[in-house]
Amino acid sequence: MPHDARQAEAQLHASRDRLQVAPPEGTWRLPLPGSPSHAMLLDKRAVSANLLLGSGLVTVALLSLCLGSAMIPPLDAIRALLGQGDAMAVFVVQELRLARLMAGLLTGAAFALAGCLMQTLARNRLATPGIIGIDNGATAFAVVSVVGMGISLAPPPMALAGAAVATAITFGLAGGAGTRGYRFIVAGIGVGAVFGALTQLLLARVAIDVANSAYPWTVGSLNARSGNAVSILGAGLALGIVAAQMLARSMAVLRFSDAVAQGLGIRVRLCRLLALVLAVALTALAVAVAGPVGLVALIGPEIARHLSSRRGVPLIGSALAGAVMMVASDLAGRLLFAPIEIPVGIVTAVVGGPFLLWILLRPAARDLT
Amino acid sequence: MSQGVAHVAGKERLSLPSMFSLLSACLAVVCLFSLLFGAGEIGPLDSLLILLGKLDGTTAQYAEEAVFVVQELRLPRTLIGLVVGMALGVAGALLQAVARNPLAEPGLLGVSAGSAFAVAVALMLGASAATLRVSVAQLGALAGCLCVLAAARMRGVGNDPVRLVLAGAVLSGLLGALTSMILLVDQRTADEIRFWIVGSLAGRRIEDLHAILPSMALGGVVTVLIARPLAALALGERVAVGLGHHPQLVRLLVIGVVAILVGATTAVAGPIAFIGLVVPFAARALAGPDIRRTLWLCLPLGPLVVISADIVSRLVVQPSELPLGVLTALIGAPVLILVVRSQRLPTL
Question: DSSP 3-state assignment of B197?
Answer without folding.
Answer: coil
